[in-house]
Write a structure and sequence with these properties.
homodimer; alpha+beta; Aldehyde Oxidoreductase, domain 3; 5-stranded antiparallel beta sheet; 4-stranded mixed beta sheet; 9 strands; 32% helix; 28% strand; elongated; MoaE_sf (chains A, B)
């Protein structure tokens, strides 16, 4: 059983997709924009595109009192890798960096930073849009919010999980995910992530 | 006659387009990414999208030894304003910030930073792409490069000016622009920019 307490929270992955540099970080620390941008910078690049997802004080018209992120880290890492690989096949990129913060993220601070660099602007602009859209739809990272009126945690349903994740604990969600993916996918597609 | 020596180099413009905050800076100083991002940040925003144009060490297969930007500042300001206004009509934005560096820009440093913020991600991502595309096509900012093999300044032709700007001085280009725009456009469309 993997819980939010023992996932490894700082993954640095260097992979060579068509000579592209990629990094993935999941961390409980604040995200350092300048650092990620400097990592993507290169004399061969004329363009660095960035998406920063920040904590809003409202959601669906309700005031958000507190926001936290939880991840199923091994699968999140694997899914983000897959999305970066897809983007790198669509556009020639120098770098693709995805950093996601977990735990409590105060209002206006960054929960996610995506940085892509390329020779020309279109590639990195397109890749950043592609990565954030697919990450939100496919990666098991849950946003949990406490609203002013309810005083209760609500899991955000942006991630289109086939199961109802509302009112489940992270442990229950991970358990369900593990059994689901063990059934649905071949072992070599999942790789070592689930065996950590 | 306006030359690169006497243009005002640090414009801060606050305009209320549909309650949107907009800033335009033209400066000979290095651009501060964190500062522009912090200016666009707001508790109502869930998304900050950024485009950074950086100096490459090559162009069209030739090694770039030195790169400089020159602007016809009053018209550049007016054109950028117009592009921001167009973007704000297409997408609800909280902020739109455009900062362009002039003069010598060393390799890997930012010549332009565009930052847009919005409640949801699509608006700011679309607006950043829109602004950089239109800025490159419509705003009188010239990129001049010295290539290793030639040893000569070449004006970059990315800005699709109707005239041939190659092998002309900035003064000549501005002179042509002024007479062209005086002929072509109504005075109230140009506003006070040309009379400064």
């Amino acid at each position: 059983m993997i819980t939010s307490k023992n996932i490894h929270i700082n993954l640095w992955i260097n992979k060579d997709y068509h000579h592209m540099k990629s990094h993935i970080t999941l961390t409980y620390e604040p995200l350092n924009l300048d650092y990620y941008v400097s990592q993507a910078s290169d004399p061969s690049c004329g363009a660095i595109s960035v998406f920063i997802g920040t904590t809003r004080d409202n959601f669906d018209g309700k005031r958000v009192v507190r926001l936290e992120y939880e991840a199923y880290a091994p699968m999140a890492e694997r899914k983000i890798n897959k999305i970066i690989e897809e983007a790198s096949k669509l556009w020639p990129l120098h770098s693709a960096i995805v950093a996601h913060r977990l735990g409590h993220v105060p209002t206006t601070e960054a929960s996610i930073i995506i940085v892509c660099s390329s020779s020309h602007r279109t590639e990195s602009l397109m890749a950043v849009s592609y990565i954030i859209d697919h990450l939100k739809a496919e990666v098991p990272i849950w946003k949990k919010e406490i609203y002013e009126d309810s005083g209760a945690w609500k899991a955000n349903k942006e991630w289109r999980h086939p199961m109802d994740i509302q009112n489940r604990t992270l442990a229950q969600n991970i358990e369900n995910l593990e059994s689901e993916y063990k059934d649905r996918e071949k072992v070599d597609d999942i790789g070592p992530s689930l065996n950590r």
